[in-house]
Amino acid sequence: MKCVDDFRLRFGRQELVPIMVGGMGVDISTAELALEAARLGGIGHISDAMVKTVSDRRFKTDFVKGKLKRYKFNVANSDKSAVLFDLGRLAKATHNHVDRAMQAKRGNGLIFVNCMEKLTMNAPRETLRVRLSAALDAGIDGITLSAGLHLGSFALIADHPRFRDARLGIIVSSLRALQLFLRKNARLGRLPDYIAVEGPLAGGHLGFGIDDWAKHDLRVIVTGIQQYLHAEKLDIPLIPAGGIFTGSDAVSYLESGAAAVQVATRFTATRECGLPDKVKQEYFKANEEDIEVNMISPTGYPMRMLKGSPAIGAGIRPNCEAYGYLLDGSGNCAYITAYNREVAAHPKAKKISVMDKTCLCTAMRNFDCWTCGHNTYRLKDTTRRLADGTYQLLSTEHVFRDYQFSIDQKIALPPDPSPAENAPNQLNQAHGKPDK
Ligand SMILES: Cc1cc2nc3c(=O)[nH]c(=O)nc-3n(C[C@H](O)[C@H](O)[C@H](O)COP(=O)(O)O)c2cc1C
With a 6 A CB cut-off, is 47 part of the ligand 1 pocket? Predict the structure, then answer.
């Protein structure tokens, strides 16, 4: 019986453990988590979502405060078109974030950054170019293009000196999306180095419609893409993602030709994960019926989350002057429209509720949108219940090794906790406080 460790992901002459921990914004897949995956010989992702907030937290910079100060005059205005990102500061924040991870990297693995196209930031092309270039400048091993079609993203960095040596990959959820990407980029003479194929059981945003996501099946999509690449004589590593919960699940994909797997949900239960410890307990406690796919993300993509997420129904004033990551090229965000509609409908109300959309920037910043994979309800089976009723947090190393070596659908429980091991994560206790 085979385990994941019997396989290797090959990039040229480089051999890796074929486990890629997926990007989880905003700083849920922390540098600490990614560094562990790299140290153990796999691939870890950081995410550049809301990178100014992340830099402020880690480096005591004041990017968010500075932006809010600059645009304070516009807070009560529903037209946000004036609220632009300072590209120099965006580059600096990205550099801080990536450089910190790369400087700390040990071992033979790699660290990639997850870049979501749907973070349109009121100037989609300009801001994405800066994000991608700054990550390359700071020495990132690779970039995973996600959440969006990214048809023009390669072209934005085609002149960068690292365009051909960094590992550049893309996440797709259909053959059609992949074909569009390849067609659009054919003239650049550069194929993606890997293709992550994300199915409907993943966490975060889903690349399917709200009415049909449940009809799709990861294995069917992967097989279709495999056949297409074979017919086109394209040798690009395929990396399935979404619902791969055990080492045996991973092996079944590797045996049928996948180059690696991308996994995330099991790492949300680790100490290195950026979620506050009390939110990690919500993930452990969740039952299957506590998880839903809804449309509250202003991006227009369905998103999976715990039904108890404080973000659902929160009617806070849009915080675009401080954040503004989801403003489209004209300064609009679907949450602003929904919020204004509710304010107009309840002119006397002190507090309103907005059910159909959420201010995702604020929610993600405060860890109030508990996005999760479908299999989150199984996390409780991967650990021990402690005397006080809480669940024992795991180490990233434990989860990584379990994927790497387990067989027969088994999941290894963590060693019995010592008091020190169970102390709350100091770093995470700082989370959840709003930016000043
Ligand atoms: C908490 C959480 C946050 C996520 N955030 C992102 C994200 O910011 N960008 C992205 O491309 N994928 C995101 N994902 C998807 C993962 O990177 C990954 O592809 C997927 O969840 C793998 O499936 P699994 O969670 O069942 O292992 C997220 C997943 C989780 C669980």
Answer: yes
